[in-house]
Design a protein that fits this description.
Layout: E1 2-11, E2 37-45, E3 51-56, H1 61-74, E4 80-84, H2 93-101, E5 105-109, H3 119-132, H4 140-153, H5 159-163, H6 166-173
Helix pairs in contact: 3-4
Amino acid sequence: MILAADEASLYLQASLMRVWAPTGQTPVIKVAANRDCTHFYAALNLKTGEEVLLRSDLMKADVSVLFLNRILQTYPNQPILLLWDRATWHKGEAVRSVLAANPHLEILWFPPGSPELNPQEQVWKAAREAVSHNHTCAKLPELAQAFEAHLSQTRFPSALLDKHGYNELCDRFN
């Protein structure tokens, strides 16, 4: 199982995009006065396009451990290669303990400063376009629920494995 993981923050503050509107009717997007946010940990299954998700108020090593455990529960007894960036909260004793206790979970670190290599970044972009750009939600929990539902119910194909012949190779051995 190959997964590409990342975290994203979701703010009630709407991000604006171009939008169609009738001539003479300027669209109105309400702006939140605060910067309240919630965070999402997610891992994209590069073969199926499915997401493993965890919503959190914080991004820290303890939450990274919860996320790794969610991945392990989702794919029990399977070898897992997790492609992950080098955020400070992905490291530390708690994370090392999970990895030591689960040798079938291996992390391959993305090079520093290279988000363009991570397919999960494209998932964030698509989800924001679908849910949080130009939104009209008045409360952050409502927006977060819509964002999470979109991530859970949508398949996000990634050409990364096809580009390198992974799916063709897997089909030969199945």
